[in-house]
Specification:
Protein name: GTP 3',8-cyclase
CATH class: Alpha Beta
Strand order of the largest sheet: 7-8-9-6-5-4-3-2-1-10-11-12
Structural class: alpha/beta
Radius of gyration: 20 Å
Number of strands: 12
CATH architecture: Alpha-Beta Barrel
Helix content: 25-40%
CATH topology: TIM Barrel
Shape: globular
EC number: 4.1.99.22
Pathway: Cofactor biosynthesis; molybdopterin biosynthesis
Largest sheet: 12 strands, mixed
GO biological process, one term: Mo-molybdopterin cofactor biosynthetic process
Distance between the termini: 39 Å
Cofactor: [4Fe-4S] cluster
Number of helices: 10
């Protein structure tokens, strides 16, 4: 049997999708306790011995880019700013070359706590843009949702990211009926005034099980109806089919400039058919879908002496078995055992 050359390997599945976007969770730890993500008392963090070392993260990133065709890398958590080796890992990833000879595009998803002190260094390390979680611009509600009174720190982080050129800055807000829905127009107004791009995300079943009910969640239609009461919205054509957000142009108004707003309708309008993502957890597990209940271990084989080629084939094999969709609307759907902070966004 002819062995396929390593240079021809790709993270392809049997449904015709190819993963070129790698999400790397650098830690499961977080300094917030957002109600839709984890219990208020927090979680039992991964023991250090189970977490990938900086060298192991670099090795797997190199395999992904050099052998498997990854072109974009997003660092996530938990909260990735808590990872001491973040800057070194980012600089290493930026030094790699994709199959086209380009540098991989690097991004970061963060809650922005401490970003004001690290934005410039992140840009120097090769991070080009950031996504920042912000579910409300009301300080009291922010403290209630996140478990911490840190909203001024988030605003400071956004300002620092803009000054450092980490743009476009995308603001992620999870829409929760009866919690922050009434204030979403205020979040959009702030984003337009600040020159950032709001992405409103349907509440997904990735946190404590009692916090999500399909019949109670705000859908894309609900969000657009809410925003349309205060803003003039016009749908924009989809340029990138693999992008998770559908976009609308926002006309300028009395108290805001023109801009865009996106809705990520992961539940009501899933985009699984165009998914180009693969995920590496902080403990070295491959997840082919955010909602997967199965994982493929890379840490064990790597620590047992597997070669780069062997690890690449394990990764490619796991991707080939990726399911066609997350199946949230299927009666047989079961929420993943891991919470969002343990998976990486």
């Amino acid at each position: 049997m002819t062995v396929e050359p390593m240079r021809m390997l790709a993270l392809a599945d049997q449904w015709g999708r190819v993963a070129r976007d790698l999400r790397v969770s650098l830690t499961d730890r977080c300094n917030l306790r957002c109600s839709y993500c984890m219990p208020p008392e927090g979680l039992d963090w991964l023991p250090t011995a189970q977490t990938l070392t900086d060298a192991e993260v670099k090795r797997l990133i190199n395999i992904a880019v050099s052998l498997l065709g990854i072109e974009e890398i997003r660092f996530t958590g938990g909260e990735p700013l808590l990872r001491r080796g973040l800057l070194d890992i980012a600089a290493y990833a930026r030094s790699l070359r994709t199959r086209s000879g380009a540098r991989p595009e690097l991004a970061l998803t963060t809650n922005a706590l401490g970003l004001d002190k690290k934005a410039s260094a992140l840009a120097e390390a090769g991070i080009s843009r950031v996504n920042i979680s912000l579910d409300t611009v009301d300080r009291e509600l922010y403290a209630r949702i996140s478990g911490r009174d840190r909203l001024p720190d988030v605003f400071a982080g956004i300002d620092a990211a803009r000054a450092a050129g980490l743009t476009p800055i995308k603001i992620n807000a999870v829409a929760m009926r009866g919690v922050n829905d009434a204030g979403l127009p205020d979040v959009l107004r702030y984003c337009l005034q600040a020159g950032t791009q709001l992405r409103i995300i349907e509440h997904m079943p990735l946190g404590p099980r009692h916090t999500w009910r399909r019949e109670a969640m705000m859908t894309q239609e609900d969000v657009l109806e809410l925003l349309s009461a205060e803003f003039e919205l016009s749908p924009l054509p989809r340029v990138d089919e693999s992008a998770p957000a559908s976009l609308w142009a926002v006309a300028p108004g009395r108290d805001h400039p023109a801009g865009t707003v996106g809705v990520i309708a992961s539940v009501s309008k899933p985009f699984c058919g165009n998914c180009d993502r693969t995920r590496l957890t902080a403990d070295g597990q491959i997840r082919t879908c955010l909602f997967a209940r199965e994982e493929t271990d890379l840490r064990g084989p790597m620590r047992a002496g597997a070669s780069d080629e062997e690890l690449a084939r394990i990764w490619a094999g796991a991707t080939w078995k990726k399911k066609p969709g997350h199946g949230i609307d299927d009666p047989s759907f079961v929420q993943p055992d891991r919470y969002m902070s343990e998976i990486g966004g």
